[in-house]
Amino acid sequence: MSRTLDHRPRTRVRATGLGLGIAALLALVSIRLFAPPELGAGLSDRVQDFVTLSVSVVIESLPFVFLGILLSIAVQLFLPEDFLVRRMPRSPALRRVVVSLLGVLLPVCECGNVPLARGLIKRGLSVGESMTFLLAAPILNPVTIITTYQAFGWDDGILVARIAGGFVIANLVGWVYSRHPDPMSLLTRGFAASCAHDATADASSKPRTAARMFLEETGEMLPALFVGSAIAGLIQVAVSRDVLVTLGQNPVLSVFALMLLAFVISICSNVDAFFVLSFGSTFMPGAIVAFLVFGPMIDVKMLALLRTTFTARTLVQLTAIVALASAAIGLGVNLVA
Amino acid sequence: MWPRLIQRWKGIALTLVGVVATLWLTLTGQLALYIHPRYFVFTAIMSVIGGLLALVALALAPDRDAEDHEHGSGHDEHANHDPSADAAAHPHRTRLTARRRRLGATGAVVSGTIVVGAVLALLVLPPAALTAQTAVDRDIDRTTADLAGDAPSLAGADLGSFTIKDWALLLRQSESPSAFSGQEVELTGFIAPAPGDPDDAFTIARFTVTCCAVDAQPIGITVHLPGWRERFAVDDWVIATGAFGGDPAGGEGAVLVPQSVEPTSQPEQPYVF
Description:
heterodimer; B: alpha+beta; CATH 2.40.50.140; transmembrane helix (chain A); Permease (chain A); transmembrane (chain A)
């Protein structure tokens, strides 16, 4: 294909695209400005709260997703292809240890980690290592550690159990999937194919490539985020909190109850410690630890985001492994406490 | 044509919806209906960046045909050769192409629904705080007790600066209901039914938020006001002025015995932090 031939139409698209974008922006602003305020009055309280809860998850997570996409684009555009591979230890186990500490350098919330992990896979990280990163980074990062310390101090070993638990589970999962005979089959077909052709290998300029990456990543991430938020909001209005709290005093059930709450509430790992602090008087310490370990790794919103990259079958296995391991850690803490 | 356009630009469409909604909430001072103020600056900055990037993507991203020619294709979504030429060259592929088209159309309907839903939820419906229904679902009484450990210290404190949250937690934490008897306060909150839903008392309540509205936990103080239903409805915002005292109805714990309860409008920051 001659590049001169397709040059002209692409230049024409630029102005049209920008014009359409600004027109769309103005249309959306007008909808917001002129939507009649009494529209919400007809909604029942539950429907209204479902909307409020879902919107709050979107507004909270969206900036982190943008940040994750930006970092992912930066990694793919500016990190030389073999940079990571060359600098990391050769032993797979040590590599996973290093990968699980990457979150220290990149303290973004877990929803930002998904686009970033996609960028890292395209830049040479194996599928198993990407899982280690995804699971470890939300817990082993300075912001999470500091807020957990502020909330719990050294009480009941909650902080230590959280850090150690996150590290162990992330490395365990990375090890399990490193033994998979065909790791690419763990990825969705669309994402595996986009890994096969290197997005940055074409002759386009960097801004153009970055623009296409932003287009593709938002196309994958945002529908998942919106659907995940709606499901999180829906479960919140549909499932009574009473049921969970009644289970709080049982050493075994309390662990599963708070894991279920973590799964449903999809709260950001940087602040989840403050949230669960209020359950400290009702729930046993092991349950709190299970919440703090399981929640950042797996929840409704994360599963929706992860589904852009991993097959449903992989996510079921991943959820089962992480849930069992978190429960084991939680029950262990309850035994000691 | 349409399915392809929707599938290609859904992310940018959702970006613009999210960015317009967030920036409008920021500019009109309503962001606190959804997230904790500590995120305001970060959220606003990332929204501006996200909006600019969406416009850049619209301006610079090559159209899909150009992209397919550039890369060849292995990507499912990128495989949109001319179907008639495809069918002629490989008749056995005709069924596959038709199936792919149907899948593409279904995908576009799903994506279109998500975009329309996002516009409705974020741009058409007016922003709203959580209602008393969620406060009841989350059990005001229990969450106030759970949070009591966070009550402020009384040593050297200026009691006049205490918020409704501070008082609710202090009352719950204190072992003796009479510890704050006679303490005059003015509390602003919304009306939620008191435990047992009696006619002579309601709970004046607020939500406290850690991160975003999803984790909102209701806190509240019982207000003794016989016949309150004649003047107010659940979810109404009120200012209650009065002093704490024992429950005239004989219940355990301190309640607010108001001198006056007046209606007010929902404050700009309905949640307490």
